[in-house]
Specification:
There is one protein chain. The protein is an alpha/beta fold. The protein has a single domain (2-210, 243-284), classed as 3-Layer(aba) Sandwich (Rossmann fold). Helix content is 48%, strand content 12%. The protein is built from eleven helices and seven strands. The chain has a seven-stranded parallel β-sheet with strand order 3-2-1-4-5-6-7, sandwiched between helices. Bound molecules: NADP nicotinamide-adenine-dinucleotide phosphate. NADP nicotinamide-adenine-dinucleotide phosphate (NAP) binds at residues 25-26, 28-32, 51-52, 54-55, 74-77, 102-106, 125, 152, 154, 197, 199-200, 202, 204, 207, 239, 246.
Length: 316
């Protein structure tokens, strides 16, 4: 992560009297909360900290309103809520200069257990909501001829894993749209970056969502039970082993904000770098069989529920 600091040091923007307005989504916990702490400590910005209703009280007490700080309620999936927040910022501080789309949810579910409602919520939170917010803030940025859109993606946006299809799809969609936006906004002087955390050392895995059938499957003994029983401890172990805390992702995002013309892709942490190069350098024919072999207990997945064809490493 620190490599970013040295590679892009010459592009650091010098602070001046102008205080850009930063809007951060999903500040109730994890990376969002750390972002709120990091940006409120730096006097060069006016910071709008947002979260859903249930966490607003907590954030008001952590970050009392001041000349440079506002705490607003924002549900990223709610059109009215998005319009209200952007409207308030426009009337008070002439609009948003830097948008950090951080809010996100993640389902742990095999595709067969997802419902249309679950898929919609996943996409509304991780893709449609951030896109609508981008549309709401762009006119002001274009007029000013400067601005930054920073979307928090994930390694899952480039490398999918079993039981995380919907999450991966939402992040892949965010990645695709951000790449197109990068081209569209360059002529207007607006930077677009995708920060891609790998596994973060945090308790965020506790916030993962289950579908009704997924929960029953994990607690029971059906054709998918072993998938859930293996993947849940595997992911929490990887997060526990990770040496990248949410705070260092927030520090990296501060550097991205302070960089003139930051890159489109910013991997956050060793895991993100590792999977990035693995995906790009390893031949596809080898990548999936290899990763499949490393999935915990994969030999027993679906065992007893299917007349499974015997496969060897090279058949996959
Ligand atoms: N943790 C990781 O290992 C990891 C890895 C790769 C990418 N990421 C990405 O990093 C971002 C932050 O994740 P995190 O690890 O900090 O997880 P987290 O602790 O679960 O934080 C997610 C935040 O998003 C908020 N949120 C969820 N739905 C929302 C909505 N409809 N409107 C507004 N806010 C909403 C949550 O608020 P509530 O408390 O109200 O639900 C929570 O504060 C996400 O986009 C995630 O996909 C995380």
């Amino acid at each position: 992560m620190s490599a970013y600091k040295y590679v892009y040091w010459f592009k650091r923007i010098r602070p001046n009297s102008y205080k850009p307005v930063i809007l951060i989504t999903g500040c109730a916990s994890g990376i969002g909360l750390e972002l709120a702490k990091v940006f409120t400590r730096v006097p060069n910005y006016r910071v709008v900290i947002t979260a859903r209703k249930g966490s607003i009280e907590k954030l008001h007490s952590l970050f009392p309103a001041s000349q440079n700080i506002r705490v607003y309620e924002l549900d990223i999936t709610d059109d009215v809520s998005r319009k209200q927040v952007v409207g308030k910022i426009c009337s008070e501080w002439e609009g948003v200069d830097i948008l950090i789309n951080n809010a996100g949810i993640s389902y742990r579910s095999v595709i067969e257990h997802m419902t249309s409602k679950d898929e919609s919520l996943q996409m509304a939170t991780n893709y449609f909501g951030p896109m609508s917010l981008i549309r709401a803030v762009l006119p002001n940025m274009r007029k000013k001829g400067r601005g930054k859109i920073i979307n928090i993606s994930s390694v899952s946006g480039m490398l999918a894993m079993p039981t995380m299809s919907s999450y991966s799809a939402s992040k892949a969609a965010l990645e695709g749209a951000s790449e197109a936006l990068w081209y569209e906004m360059r002529p207007f002087g607006i930077d677009v970056s995708l920060v891609q955390p790998g596994f973060i050392h945090s308790e965020s895995f506790k916030n993962v969502r289950y579908t009704e059938r997924g929960r029953q499957s994990e607690d029971g003994n059906d054709e998918y039970s072993q998938f859930y029983k293996s993947m849940r401890p595997f992911i929490s172990k990887l997060m526990g082993l990770s040496r990248t805390p949410a705070e260092s992702v927030a520090q990296l995002i501060l550097l991205v904000v302070q960089t003139e013309r930051p890159p489109l892709w910013v991997p956050a942490g060793f895991g993100a770098e590792f999977f990035y190069y693995l995906r790009r350098l390893m031949p596809r024919r080898l990548l999936h069989p290899l990763l499949f072999r490393f999935l915990p207990g994969v030999r027993h997945w679906g065992e007893g529920f299917s007349r499974k064809r015997k496969t060897t490493f090279w058949d996959l």
